Amino acid sequence: MYFPLDERTAVDYVRSFPDLTEILGNSDDLECVDLAEGNINLIFRVYGESDPSNRSVLIKQALPHSRRYPEFKIPLDRARIEYELLQLEARYCPGMVPRVYRHDPEMHLNVMEDLNRHLVLRYGLMKQIRYPFLAKHMGTFLARTLFYTSDLYLSSPEKKALVPRFINPVLCKISEDLVFTEPFIGHPNNRWTRLLDPQVIAIRNNDQLRSRVLVLKLEFMCNAQALIHSDLHTGSIMVNEGETKVIDPEFAYFGPMGYDIGAVLGNLALSYASQEYHARDPQVRSGYRQWLLETIREVWTTFESEFRRVWEIEGNNQWPSAALRDKYLIRLLQDTAGFGACKMMRRILGLAHVPDLDSIEDDHARATAESLALNIALAWLMDRHEMGSVDDLISAISGSKPSYPFV
Ligand code: SR1
Ligand code: MG
Description:
It is a single chain. By secondary structure, this protein is an alpha+beta fold. It is built from 15 helices and ten strands. Helix 10 (about 255-280) packs across helix 12, helix 10 runs antiparallel to helix 14 and helix 12 (about 320-350) runs antiparallel to helix 14 (about 365-380). It is globular and about 65 Å long.
């Protein structure tokens, strides 16, 4: 029977499974800490207090509502969706997702590898850490997870059989509202830096802009292009010098590929804007921004070459046209720009913000960084149909300036 764990019952839970206690070295002094991380779930770390090898596991358990925003009621079934996608991702990108030691369908939880030798990417970027393999890893992850779950690889019946396993209506509706609707209208969920009022009001009053966002919302709702992670921001990526792990795929469903690619590139662009504050020294700032731009370029170029490679050798022969491949990739780039833009704007105008910007206490400094991020997003959104290469996304970033302070 389902019940939400606490620090005591989480230890009892682990103790009741010999395979889990074995992972922890059969310690008889198991301890638990509630990590209270993320917006949605319970997350506990269980470890042996006197284990010289410091072994630990994570328990991620779904609640019937969001942990941080309890007014959002969310089905417990998301723990299964997360488990099933992690299995698929591990098949196509071995080593790039945490191992799941136990999926418990009654308790709606997964016991997983504790990535305690990794840091959440967002926090690494806030400290100007450079990750030499990040771009290669993420470009490859995106190419393979998206290609192998698309109609380019799966047969038509295989794809149709997979789609209903990942029908995720409540979490999709959260994204429809929080990414594509609320940030662009006056909505009680929204919060924003009040110094930015003129820019925020101009965005809300721009019907051309809103129409472009709503076209993307229709894509999000109607285009079952591939099985996407659907919340692939830099808080869903964990890194160290040599490894990159993608976590938290509970929002997964069959949606547009550009939503995942745009999430990665858009969040790197948010980091670029936030360096206005985090990298105080101008030389450090410009050097790190250059690295972020190179990372954006390499994520895309790696994605494109791996996607073309697997399509060439493992495509299902239903798409016999070389010209289609070029058209498909350009369309993906333009979708990436559009979805990336929406993902950036929601973090400044909507309900759930990101630490890159929210941690900036000084209102003026935060307004400057956020205004720059909004202008990058506007350039991506409004010019996306003219974009023909990743250089166009990069020029839009380096050519943008904050509108704040307004003159
Ligand atoms: C109510 S959930 C708010 C946000 O947290 C998740 O990480 C998703 O990004 C969602 O939109
Ligand atoms: Mg998440």
